[in-house]
Amino acid sequence: MKKIAVLGAGLCGATAAAALTQQGYQVTVFDKGRVAGGRMSSKRTEQGYLDMGAQYFTARSDAFKRQVKLWLDAGKVELWPCKTALLSNDEGFISLKASEDTQARFIGVPSMQSPVTALLDGIPQVNSCRIQKLDYQQQSWTLFNDEGVSYTGFDAIILTLPPVQAQQLVAHSALPELFGSADDVLEPCWAVAMHTDAMPAQDAIFCQHPKLRFISHQQHKAGRSSCYILHFNAVFSGLYLDESAQFWFAEAIAILRQELHIQQEIRPLVAHRWLYASQNDQSAAPGLIALPNLKLWAGGDWSFGGRVENAYLAGLNLANALIEQDKSQQETP
User: Rounded to whole angstroms, how far apart are CA atoms 147 and 150?
Assistant: First the structure.
C-alpha cells in the first residue's frame, strides 16, 4: 500500500485525502493548525462559533452538488436562509439596498469546518505541525517539521498550502520552483467580529466600498454567536496589515455606526488576519502544479480562481493526477 503525505487540512487537502483513501492509499494529513478547516475554520467561543473565514459556499458543478447533497443528508451542512443586500460608498454617498437573489448558499453545521472534518474522518492527521523541509531520496519522501522531527517513507506528496508557503517550502528543500510569482495569487484580509443587540434586516451584505468586501451577520446560522463579521478588502487590509486588533476594532465600530447606523452598544470580539485569503483578480489562476518525476503535486482553490467549490475540485483533481500516474506506471512494461 502506497503512503501519501497531504500537506494542508483545508477543504482541498481533505478532499484529496478522502479520494485517495477510498482508492486504497495510506494517507497522512499534516497541518500547522490545531484543527482541520483552513480558511473554512470557525472560532469556538462560549457563545457559539464565529465564522472568521469563509462565510458560505455555493455549488455549481455536478461533482460538488453531489458532495453537498451527501453533506446535507448527513447533517454536516445546511442552507443559509440569508437575506442579501448591497452596501456602496460612492464618493462619500452611502447606500444600503436590499438585493435579493435566488442563489443557494450553504454553511457547515455546527461550524464551517464540519464538512472538512467529515471528509477526514478516520484519516490520520498530524496537527500543530509546520513542515519546514522535504527530502526526496531513492524514490521516498521524508518530511521535517520546525522542531526537527522527521516523518519518513512517503511515496508521494500533495501540497495544498497557499502559494507563498508552498514556494517557501520547496525553496527551503532545494526543489524546483512551483510558481513564477507566488506573491500575486492570494491577497490578505482582516476579519473582525463585533457584537451588538441591533438585529439587521439583511445578513449577507456585499460591499462596493473603499474598505470593505463583505459584512455578514450570524443571526440565521445554526451554532453561531449572533454577531456581525466584517471582512475588509485586500487593498485596505494590505495598507494596514500589521496594525493591532484595536485598530481594526475601531474601524469596524466606525463602519457599523456610520454605514449601518447602529446606535446600540457595540462590543469587539475577535480580529483575525488572513495573510492569504481572497484570489487576486488581476493574477491568472495557475492551475494545478505537477512535478510527476518527483511524485509531487500542488493545488488549492487558487488553482482555478478561488471559491470554496474550487478547493473541492482541486482536491479531486490532485488525487486523480496521482492515481492516473500510478496506473500509467503499472501499465508500462
Answer: 9
